[in-house]
Amino acid sequence: MFEIPKNVLSIISTLESAGHEAFIVGGCVRDVIRGVTPKDWDITTSAVPSQVKGLFSRTFDTGIKHGTVSVLLGGDCFEVTTYRVDGEYLDSRRPSEVTFAGEIEKDLSRRDFTVNAIAYSPTRGFVDPFDGQVDIKKGIIRCVGDAEKRFGEDALRMLRAIRFAAVLEFSVNNAALHAITKLRESLANISAERIREELVKLLCGKNLDALKLLEKTGLMYFVLQKRVNHGDLEESISRLKTLAKTNADENMKIALFLYWTGDNCKNILRDLRFDNKTIKTVSIYVENIFAELPQNRYEIKKFLKEISPEFFLNLIELKKVTNPALEIKKIHEEVHDILEKKECFTLRELAVNGDDLAAVGIPRGKETGEALEKLLDAVMREPSLNVKEKLLCL
Question: How many C-beta neighbours within 10 Å does residue 51 have?
């Protein structure tokens, strides 16, 4: 029915030959049913970690506390996890303890959504006690068992449900949406880093209308780190859909989303624990989305002096999305011509440096910096001046 990598089959075969059960499970099964090649292949087994480690020559403990051992085979790494049931959840995120289970059905019963609670092996076929295959065909995200219980165990699952709706282009069933709305405040117990990861994946999904579910359920307030979205979400989604048709990177998508929240994007980015590079990049995008376009070659160079050519062209694409009538072809041509002719727009490309200026009597320090900036400005206006002898005579 579908092809499983030979190394995965080898691991399953080795475990079964030793008298254990073994299946591929979770997202990889969901993906192959959808006709998508999985990025990772997760294996679950009745064997306990010590038994798994005894069957393979190269292993290391990935999450031994939770029964996970990584098996190295043929240059690839595969996670093999013992069937388990989870103990009580005390922090809305992780079980206080896990107990190894002897049956695959018990392991599947602890999982979040029916589409992720399917196992498969070449010898036993599918094990699908919660009709996940039916939900995949219908395009529905439905919790395994009681939705409130699932989300009460792990509050991040609420955001994951909506992320799956965006990425898989599925809908979320009413029982799950009702439970999310009821329990939305528990998302405040989840780390900003985990929320950030889910938000970025959501924004990179194809079903961007899923963002409406964040508003509908009240999760948006907690995703934005306890801020109200003051923007027009419908318009934001429309722009994001247009952006999705381009080669936009995730920073461009984050910028367009945050612009429409109507709040200070830097504060949101910091609260969501984005790295400094992303904060700087996204902030520049947001600050310039509706700024006036450069009108001539010199003004383009002033932009290129502050940000990379790739960054600048991305900004122009963002501006085009927010203003479809904008004519950007000429700017693209100018940028490429500047780069092709290697015209100077940074101090690094200037034909003189601080040592050259010191040699003709300009004191080092603030005066040197000011002089170099004036020379750079002159060269950006007139490229032919970027010759050492000419610059030292200015």
Answer: 16
Task: Assign 229 a pLDDT band (cuts: 50, 70, 90).
Answer: confident
- The average pLDDT across 336-359 equals 95
Mean pLDDT of all residues in 270-290: 93
344, 350 Cβ separation under 8 angstroms: yes
- Of 127-131, 238-242, 305-309, 373-377, minimum mean pLDDT range: 305-309
**Residue whose pair of structure tokens reads 């994001």 in the numeric block:** 240
Q: What is the pLDDT of residue 101?
A: 80
Confidence of residue 85 (pLDDT cuts 50, 70, 90): confident
Q: In angstroms, rounded to a whole number, what is the distance separating the alpha carbons of residues 178 and 366?
A: 63
Backbone angles phi, psi at 296, to 5 degrees: -150, 180
Measured in Å, how far apart are the chain's first and last C-alpha atoms?
A: 75
Helix, strand, or coil here: 342?
coil
Residues 194 and 111: their CA atoms lie apart, in Å, by 18
Q: Residue 353: helix, strand or coil by DSSP?
A: coil
Helix (H, G, I), strand (E, B) or coil at 207: coil
> Residue 94: is it exposed, middle or buried by C-beta count within 10 angstroms (0-12/13-18/19+)?
middle
Side chain identity at residue 131, one-letter code: D
Structure tokens at 77: 């790494």
Which pair of structure tokens corresponds to residue 68?
């996970």
Residue with tokens 């290391």: 60
DSSP-assigned beta bridge partners for residue 113: 143
CB-CB neighbours of 129 under 10 Å? 15
Which residues make Cβ contacts (< 8 Å) with residue 132, sequence separation at least 6? 30, 113, 114, 115, 116, 117, 118
